Automatic annotation (TrEMBL):
<protein>
    <recommendedName>
        <fullName>FAD-binding domain-containing protein</fullName>
    </recommendedName>
</protein>
<dbReference type="InterPro" id="IPR050562">
    <property type="entry name" value="FAD_mOase_fung"/>
</dbReference>
<keyword id="KW-0285">Flavoprotein</keyword>
<feature type="domain" description="FAD-binding">
    <location>
        <begin position="282"/>
        <end position="336"/>
    </location>
</feature>
<dbReference type="GO" id="GO:0071949">
    <property type="term" value="F:FAD binding"/>
</dbReference>
<keyword id="KW-0274">FAD</keyword>
<dbReference type="GO" id="GO:0004497">
    <property type="term" value="F:monooxygenase activity"/>
</dbReference>
<comment type="similarity">
    <text>Belongs to the paxM FAD-dependent monooxygenase family.</text>
</comment>
<feature type="compositionally biased region" description="Basic and acidic residues">
    <location>
        <begin position="435"/>
        <end position="444"/>
    </location>
</feature>
<dbReference type="InterPro" id="IPR002938">
    <property type="entry name" value="FAD-bd"/>
</dbReference>
<dbReference type="Pfam" id="PF01494">
    <property type="entry name" value="FAD_binding_3"/>
</dbReference>
<keyword id="KW-0560">Oxidoreductase</keyword>
<feature type="domain" description="FAD-binding">
    <location>
        <begin position="1"/>
        <end position="160"/>
    </location>
</feature>
<feature type="region of interest" description="Disordered">
    <location>
        <begin position="415"/>
        <end position="464"/>
    </location>
</feature>
<dbReference type="InterPro" id="IPR036188">
    <property type="entry name" value="FAD/NAD-bd_sf"/>
</dbReference>
């Protein structure tokens, strides 16, 4: 059972679809909502998309990002970071597109009958026989494994942690609130006039951010379809952040005229004012979200495991949140593929292997995301000085060296033919699958492969 039909949950579902493991996705929303703004992907996940046969579809909805341009509030250039040399060493371009389009691509690969909408999880119970979730509509659902892919305020995590707290098994830090630092409003415009915004004609994206006064910043990024993704953001003081935390809500269109008016007359990096972008965006595609961060220590217990924002919520400036969520999915799928029968012993071993493989990398990317937030939006004197050095004086060889190191982590599905390295840079080795190797031998010998993962329970199991 997968709770959450976001990018992490959909990737998890698609990978299980590829290895013929029965699953159901439970989503709390009553309907699919095309929300969000810009999303970027790079070599850290595009190798997997190529392996799954989805790379061409991703490239068709995206544009390569050749640089990141930074301006001050009066639209004077602060500096620019070029991505020149990235594709050569990484093997794939860094691409940018509207987030809803990737969501539409992934959900199109999942049989509709396997996604159940309007299922808000209230609690969970698990024992040696299985795991059960209780939903707000009064229904109960049973399975062998529960995957919490339901975001930063995960109901699965809350239920799991509640049980672990009763047993005194949860680290104190895991019961602490997420750190909330920013409130943002995002949207994607309808198609715009190329003559009014000529940069839309370019084959590459224009990624432009403005640093304003009083801890505010805003972005405009061109994407395919003559559209512009935009984001308005304000950094919150600690007391204000805590108050906002209590009022946190999921992604959704919200009335927040005060924030719109705060940015409405500010200059747009593509010309005109940000109000032009807001007016060109249907109200139902404008959403307000809070940007939190927290790296949880506990990712699994019993038959329940967490992926994506449910176990590591990262700030978005490094563009690693969605990438790491989908990396979680592929590594967990690899571990389940080699798990064997879904008994408690095998499940625990698979979850531990998943944690061992993913936690160190997630920890590194969590720190990197925090650093990039300061680099992109920090207003302290030290942060301004460092930003000036990074955007204007970094030698090209150091930038390319950084790209090679950053792109070296390219996890793939262990149950599919491996895509060889496409770039000149190194690629970290991946743990091979014993089951896949054995199935190749059996296939070569003409014998049918044995199923190593059994079906989800067909009869409900009482967990009372």
């Amino acid at each position: 059972m997968i709770v959450g039909a976001g990018l992490a949950g959909l990737m998890m579902a698609y990978l299980l679809e590829r290895i013929d493991v029965p699953y159901t996705v439970f989503e709390r929303s009553a309907e699919v909502r095309p929300l969000g703004s810009v999303l970027s992907l790079n070599a850290n996940i595009l190798a997997l998309f190529e392996q799954l046969g989805l790379l061409d579809e991703v490239l068709a909805i995206s544009k390569p990002c050749t640089s990141l341009d930074l301006f001050d509030g009066s639209m004077q250039s602060i500096g620019s970071i070029s991505s020149s040399g990235y594709q050569e060493v990484a093997g794939y371009p860094a691409v940018v597109f509207a987030r809803p389009q990737l969501y539409d691509l992934l959900i199109s690969k999942i049989p509709p009958k396997k996604i159940i909408m309007n299922k808000k999880i209230l609690s969970l119970e698990q024992n040696t026989l299985g795991v059960m979730i209780r939903c707000a509509d009064g229904s109960n659902h049973h399975g062998d494994i529960l995957v919490g892919a339901d975001g930063a305020y995960s109901g699965v995590r809350q239920g799991l942690y509640k049980n672990l707290t009763k047993k005194k098994l949860l680290p104190k830090s895991d019961n602490e609130d997420l750190d909330l630092g920013y409130v943002v409003m995002v949207g994607v415009t309808d198609p715009l006039d190329e003559d009014k915004y000529p940069e839309l004609k370019d084959a590459h994206t224009h990624f432009r951010q403005v640093l304003g006064d009083k801890n505010i910043a805003w972005q405009s990024i061109s994407v395919p379809g003559n559209k512009i993704c935009w984001r308005l953001g304000a950094q919150l003081e600690s007391e204000e952040a805590r108050a906002q935390m209590l009022r946190n809500s999921e992604w959704g269109p919200e009335a927040n005229e005060a924030m719109i008016q705060q940015f409405y007359d500010l200059p747009c990096p593509f010309g005109g004012k940000m109000g032009d972008m807001i007016d060109a965006t249907p109200k139902e595609r404008i959403s307000k979200v809070y940007l939190e961060e927290k790296l949880f220590e506990t990712w699994y217990h019993g038959r329940t495991v967490l992926i994506g924002d449910a176990c590591h919520k990262m700030l978005p400036q490094a563009g690693q949140g969605a990438i790491n969520a989908m990396q979680d999915a592929v590594i967990l799928a690899n571990c389940l593929y080699d798990m064997g029968e879904p008994n408690v012993t095998n499940i625990k071993a698979a979850f531990q292997q998943y944690y061992d493989l993913r936690y160190p990398h997630a920890k590194t990317q969590f720190a990197n995301s925090k650093f990039m937030a300061k680099l992109m939006s920090g207003q302290k004197l030290s942060e301004r000085i460092f930003r000036n050095l990074m955007f204007n004086y970094m030698p090209a060889f150091l930038r390319v060296r950084h790209y090679a190191k950053a792109a070296s982590y390219q996890p793939q599905a262990s149950f599919l033919p491996t895509i060889p390295p496409r770039g000149t840079g190194p690629v970290e080795p991946q743990m091979p699958s014993k089951r896949y190797a054995e199935e190749l031998k059996q296939k070569e010998a003409g014998a049918p492969p044995e199923l190593a993962v059994s079906n989800v329970m067909t009869e409900p199991v009482s967990l009372e």
